[in-house]
Fold this sequence. Notes:
Elements: H1 2-8, H2 13-102, E1 126-128, E2 142-144, H3 148-160, E3 165-169, H4 174-188, H5 192-197, H6 201-206, E4 209-214, H7 228-236, E5 242-244, E6 259-262, H8 265-273, H9 283-287
Antiparallel strand pairs: 1-2, 3-4, 4-6, 5-6
Amino acid sequence: MREFFTKVFDKDIFPIIIIGLSLFGIIKYIDYRFSILENQVNSNEEKSILMQKDVKNISDLVLGTQSNVTDVLEQEKLKNSLMSDQFQQISSTVGALEKLSTTDPELLKKYSKIYFLNEHYIPVSLSEIGENYRSEKSNNYQFLSDALPFLQKMIDAGNSDGVSLKALSAYRSFVDQTNLKANYKVSYGAGANRFSADQGYSEHQLGTALDFSTLKTKGLLEGFDKTPEYKWLLENAYKYGFVISYPKGNAYYKFEPWHWRFVGIALATRLHDENKYFYDEDQRIIDNYLVKFFDEQ
Ligand SMILES: [Zn+2]
């Protein structure tokens, strides 16, 4: 034992032992510091994971709120568009009612030898047919004011296609008609009834019917069915709302190729597409078109 201590405190070994102990202490200390650092890093990682979770929660919350806000906005938009649809429906109903209340139902009635227009009937408003649209410039032919633009547009379109339609007669009052009938009777006797007074009588009093002539037929009705103007009318008049009242081979009246009546574009187009004539169509179906009478397409 003594020997051992003697050796330990020996000059040579002692410093080595001291150095060894010191190194051991240093290593232990370093190890201890490392473990502290390691713990700190771990706890930081945990914190970072927790923070990430927090961030995710917040972002979920924000996104959720956003989508809620978007949903609410979408719902409001939907409500608004429903309300605007309803408003439009109401407005168009009001518009239709207004049109119906201001459009004279007589304008779409079928007249016959049994059902005549009242002799006191006068159109709401009449306007003079422009000079260039008349066969005789001196005669003041009148037409229903709201229907006149359709007539003039049709004649213009005919001119562009190389046909020259001219109005020979348009609105005729009950008195005009009676005088005309008397004149015809002088010229044609009882035969006058067949082509003047009976047919087209009421239609002329409406202000929406007219007789056409051409420059070539020189203001005469006869022979109109042989003209390119007549052919053009058969193919195109419906586009402007006009129909032939008494077509060839009709079951009711003598053929009147020159006599055309404005019934509105919608009805004229339907009749054209279905290859029907005004007087063949059911009055109840015709009446449905009153609301579209002055529609431009
Ligand atoms: Zn006529």
